[in-house]
Amino acid sequence: MIAVVADAESWRLGPLYESMHSTEQCLEWAAKRRLLHNNVDCPRCHIATSLVARVDNIDGYHWRCRRCTFTKAVRADSFFKDSHLHIRQIVIMMYCWARDVPQTETAHEADVPAGKTVVDWRRFFRDKAKITLKEIQTKLVEWT
């Protein structure tokens, strides 16, 4: 039998807040955990794009090719892509969901409206967890 061991982290709410104090820290934190891309190649020029400041979006950055006009949102291809919340708020809600923190406290800690926002994100986290577990099961079956 093959054992699958993931790199585990032990989060605490205080240090989590501290590690995501600025937008740049949030992006770096999410990229280190493969929740966002660490780099993006231009599909036209086939060169690496640069992370460039952009004041008209919530993340303050986007990927841009130095040769052509190609740009890509930092959140593209991630589960953050359709949200208007700050990445820090989503990660705090994810932490609270994983720790089974009550919804009202989750809303307070993440600084989001209580009710639908928290309920929808909790459902989303649950659904993503189910999909991930099924993918892991499939890989384990393939390996045996």
Terminal residue distance: 7 Å
Question: Helix/strand/pairing class, anyone?
Answer: mainly alpha
Any low-confidence stretches, pLDDT <50, length ≥5?
Answer: 1-6
Mean pLDDT: 89
User: What is the chain-wise order of helices and strands?
Assistant: HHEEEHHH
Spatial extent as radius of gyration: 17 Å
Strand elements, count:
3
Strand content: 5-15%
- Tertiary shape: globular
* Largest pleated sheet: 3 strands, antiparallel
- Total helical segments: 5
Lateral arrangement of strands in the main beta sheet: 1-2-3
Helical amount = 40-55%
How is this fold's topology laid out?
Blueprint (H helix, E strand, L loop, with lengths): L12 H7 L3 H10 L17 E4 L7 E4 L6 E3 L13 H12 L4 H8 L5 H28 L1
Antiparallel strand pairs: 1-2, 2-3
Describe the structure in your own words.
This protein is mainly alpha-helical. 45% of the residues lie in helices and 8% in strands. It is built from 5 helices and 3 strands; from the N terminus they run H-H-E-E-E-H-H-H. The chain has a 3-stranded antiparallel β-sheet with strand order 1-2-3, with no helix packed on it. Helix 3 packs antiparallel against helix 4. The N and C termini lie close together (7 Å).
